[in-house]
Amino acid sequence: MHDDRSITEHRLRRVLKERVKPAVHSRAVPLTVERWEAPGEPVPVAEGLAAAYGPCAVGDPWGPAWGTTWFKVTGTVPADWAGRTVEAVLDLGFDRMMPGFQCEGLVHGADGGEVKALNPYNDWVRVADRAEGGEQVEWYVEAASNPVLVDHAATYEGDLATSGDQPLYRLARMELTVFETEVWELVQDLEVLYDLMTQLDGGDARRHEILRALGAALDALDLGDVPGTAPAARGCLAGVLAAPANASAHRISAVGHAHIDSAWLWPLRETVRKVSRTASNMVGLMDRHPEFVFAMSQAQQLDWIKTYRPELFERIKKKIADGQFVPVGGMWVESDTNMVGGEAMARQFLYGKKFFLDEFGIDTQNVWLPDSFGYTAAMPQIVKLSGSRWFLTQKICWSQTNAFPHHTFWWEGIDGTRVFTHFPPVDTYNSDLGGAQLAHAARNYREKGRGSRSLVPFGWGDGGGGPTREHLARARRQRDLEGSPRVAIERPDAFFEKARAEYADAPVWAGELYLELHRGTYTSQAKTKQGNRRSESLLREAELWAATAAVRVAGYAYPYEDLERIWKTVLLHQFHDILPGSSIAWVHREARETYAAVGEELQGITLAAQQALAGQGTAELVFNCAPHARRGVPAGGAGRPAAAGEPVTVEERHGGGHILANGRLLVEIDGRGLIVSVYDLEARREAIAPGSAANLLQIHPDFPNMWDAWDIDEFYRNRVTDLVELDRLEVTESGPQSATVRVTRSFGRSEAVQQITLRAGATTVDIVTEVDWHETEKFLKAAFPLDVKAERTASETQFGHVYRATHTNTSWEAAKFEICAHRWIHAEEPGWGVALLNDSTYGHDVTRDVRADGGQTTTVRLSLLRAPRYPDPETDQGSHTLRFSIAPGAGIGDAVREGHALNLPERVVGGAGPVAPLVAVDEDAVVVEAVKLAEDRSGDVIVRLYESRGGRVRATLTADFPLSAAVESDLLERPLAGAAVGVPTPEGRVPLTLRPFQIVTVRLHRR
To answer: For this protein, what is the EC number (predicted)?
Structure first.
């Protein structure tokens, strides 16, 4: 037989595009359209309905960037359409090649009720399943003219304050039509079979069988009467659609999904509308398709619907009760996991799962994080302690260098906890359920022979509207179809139960899930990161002192509502495009304003509690919120500090510069203002590599191949400029309590002023760097070449630390050329090490080199600032204050202690006398992470603590208040069957036994 495959395939593509699809909506009559431009920000629906509308016509331009245009649409169903299915097509000017990231609309009825959302692949509205003729149509379309910002070009359209006022869209189609059901079904038949056929091997008989059936269907179709001949064409396809799948066919659990970033290329206020539009369509789809299951993560997004669209929220609650609408994720938002602090990560689950429990009575079991930029090794334990069982991610498929070896596996965290994890082999969280994607999932699945199933999240994301009726039609046709994987729409937990049952002995991946991409997110938008770190620290302070005051001071009321509201605000801003710095300028401008307001409010709560505790008096009391004693003031207490130690001296250095000393450290700053020696007098060890200089600011070109704010490509290292030119070098403080050398440098269009300080009794050298930053596409780092032979470094992460190799033996190690650390990074050889501490820096890199003298230099660099131009062309421009320190001779315990001290400064309040800690722990390796009152308003005290050094430990927790019981709890403060907490003694002492990096939450019942 002659090979006519290409001819038939080409014929099908053209007929489908030019004849069949246009015939789905026939007999079109125009609707009458009027418009009203909402001034400024979006208005309530009642205001939109009551506005004065003016004339409008199809073809008219509309919508400046970030504007809202209301269209009033009216019409009458023709009488001769009686008995037909009638729909309106409302095309706002959509780009069909881009399902999200553009204009969107929400249709309201004349009574203000939601009718349906409008998106590029969802521009129809059902008028009548069986028209009577003469029906009146009156709708109001709330249309958002969001600018298209996906082309990776620098643009000022990303902020209302700098965007243009020219119309971005042109009204395309506003018509009443007859919906031709058989034609629509024919489109689904043809598309499913064509997509399946193209995925089959050229020698596969099934491919040729489908080809002949498609050819016969085209022959049966009269292009002059597509509606009339569609049933005959479908009849030619019935046989090939009925052939059952192979017994060994891959099994796909299809879960409806609409990935909606809580902010990204749009501001938070637009996400509020995006989620309402999408959820409105989903409950409507569920009404017509009882088999449809839709999963929605992010409690914040459902809370927005509850607040702004209460009628829609009630519809969602009913669908949740019916089992069709499925809350997943258990977190307040789909947060970043690399940079979020330990307690904040716990609160993501506390407030997320609590919302689902309070509103729906559902204790979510899975963690749904498809799009975050890598996953911390602390996550498995946090997941388990939240009461969750499963973990799902997708983003790891974006890694540039190494293909992740598993799709279904056990993920082991730093403490040894394992969580059953799935990484969908479809490699997208916005699947269209087309043949190409399903075939890719089956081919790509790495567990063949052991497992047989994978999960596919399907639906258009980021404002694209979620799943559509076309998706469901594909799923139906591929439920049991020869040549295709078997597709079943089902709930995520159903998939995980089946996957674990068939593959309980899945392989284990230990440690972080490092994304070999988007490494620049550890640094971009420094003020957002600084605001997050500062807010986390201030929340710790506010809760500690408020809890202490609530227990100790009569009449003091613990600010439950205020703290919960602030926590939720901070958690929202940890979303995986806000905290990483990859959102538009509008988002980060608002974030800076929000963090400032949060900081002011938290400092007010803290001061009120401290004043209540301090009482009336003139004594200067130092309040120590850090988890370790300092200057004689106990952790979590207040008192008069002890004497600091030997005074600090300053001398001129031979050859230029200055020498600072305090009896513990000897610090040399040369004539260039660089630190050339930090000598540990007790250990008689030099921290800085010979011939090198530390605190060396270095600048690199920064123009990655793509994803400007997200990425750092390794070739940035090929060019570097050491900033050694000096404007001024001066001693601004000369002891005895502290000495400071001020260094000023100019470079490019920027200036850096650094204050290098040594304090009496200190084992750290503190550096405050003020940068007036006006560079573009540049990367600023601070280098510390250490005289340490370190095969690995330790980086703080949530509730512990992770080790990473300093060598690049394999591609896996080489890919980690930029890494994330929280408050510290530590390099050590047996017996002696150095810690680098910071107050708001997350990005670091570590390299090693062997010197001519045979020694090894381990260079640790802090990533301070970047200047990408997309999506915010003014990223990081302006003034910054960054604090970091070097601690020679530090062990891991010292790094933990000093890292907290840097991030939790002492506060001085006048009062009557010392304040004893509310709770105390007698072992420095055990860090108290949080002290608060219980969420249930019982007055119980919640203490969360963890083992911080990676070893087993026994400790005693002492409560300084009458105690009736101590109960180990999960992150939601529910009793946990564990063995870490012993029975308290009459004196309020609670014995603890912790394994390495174990997190323990203790609920202390007050008498």
So the answer is: 3.2.1.24
For 496, the domain range is 251-510
- Cα–Cα distance for residue pair 325/519, rounded to 1 Å: 35
- pLDDT digit string (tens) for 227-271? 999 999 999 999 999 999 999 999 999 999 999 999 999 999 999
d(CA 531, CA 599): 8
**Is-contact 89 202, C-beta < 8 A?**
no
Per the annotation, the verdict on 371 as an active-site residue is yes
Q: How far apart are CA 243 and CA 828, in angstroms?
A: 64
Separation between Cα atoms, residue 794 and residue 886, nearest integer Å: 15
Domain at 538, CATH number = 1.20.1270.50
Report phi then psi at 34, rounded to 5: -125, 165
Q: Per-residue pLDDT for 978 more than 90?
A: no
* Contact in structure between 818 and 803 (CB atoms under 8 Å): no
Q: What is the pLDDT of residues 299-358, one digit of tens each?
A: 999 999 999 999 999 999 999 999 999 999 999 999 999 999 999 999 999 999 999 999
Query: Phi/psi at 437 (nearest 5 deg)?
Result: -70, -40
Strands 114-118 and 169-170: unpaired
Catalytic residue among 159, 261, 303, 371: 371
653 and 789 housed in the same domain: yes
874 lies in the same domain as 769: yes
Q: Which of 834, 819, 809, 796 is nearest to 414 (CA)?
A: 796
Residue 624 lies in a domain: no
| pLDDT tens digits, 484-505 | 999 999 999 999 999 999 999 9
